[in-house]
Amino acid sequence: MRTLIALALLATPATAWEFTASPVCTVSHETADGALTLSYDPRLPDPYAIAVTANTQWPDAPIFGMRFDGPRALTITTDRQIVDGPTVTVRDQGFGNVLNGLELNATATALLGDTAIPFPLNDAAPEIQRFRACIAAPIA
Question: Phi and psi for 78 in degrees, rounded to 5?
Fold first, then answer.
């Protein structure tokens, strides 16, 4: 029985939000539905990027959105997304609303066409705070 439980735990994606500072500031999270990666690379003209990788191909749609549900609910949209197979990426010069949405809410849902991928935000706040501290400090 213990072996079955251990195997089941190994077969499921990690549920923790993870922060790394090298080679660029990054926060990532993976669920059974997909993966979300937020990065900051000051060497790029648009240093902020959010990439959402689905378990399937994203549809061709004109608007990408992120809906944040919780105490500071908001929805943000853009037409600047790039879809590359199962990954949709948006780059910009600032991500204040994205950072606030991830840090201060209960769920984030990536939206493109009729596809919606939810990400629970439990335990995201400390990693987003580490991300904010990282972008405030120069990257070597």
Answer: -155, 160
The predicted-structure confidence for 44-89, as pLDDT tens digits, reads as follows 999 999 999 999 899 999 999 999 999 999 999 999 999 999 999 9
Q: Residue 135 — left, alpha, or beta (φ > 0 → left; ψ -120 to 50 → alpha)?
A: alpha
Helix (H, G, I), strand (E, B) or coil at 129: helix
Q: What are phi and psi of 139, to 5 degrees?
A: -95, 130
DSSP for 1-61 reads -HHHHHHHHHHSPP-S-EEE-SSSEEEEEE-SSEEEEEEE-TTSSS-EEEEEEESSPPP--
CATH of domain 2-136: 2.60.40
In the block, tokens 């080679």 appear at 23
Structure tokens at 66: 């992120």
pTM to 2 decimal places: 0.86
